[in-house]
Amino acid sequence: MGRGTAGGRALQLVNISERFNRTSSHEVLDPNLFATLEEVRSETAAWLRHNNTQRPHNSLGRVPPLPFRGGRLAPSLTAVPVHSSCV
Fold it and tell me: Using an 8 Å Cβ cutoff, are 54 and 27 in contact?
């Protein structure tokens, strides 16, 4: 068994998380001044839905994750409304 396999996978997941956090901060948190936590949650949920259903991802061949997965959206995202600023 290769000892470096698990560590390499963990590092890859850390890199993905850091990229996601950087992108979401740059596109949701930085350009907005929120008055309430509810506004942050609403805008973040709308951005997540847009990111997963509309936005092309380089790592998936310029296809959004939802179409890439065959149209199966994670249950936690099915009730998230699309915000008008994301369309």
Answer: no
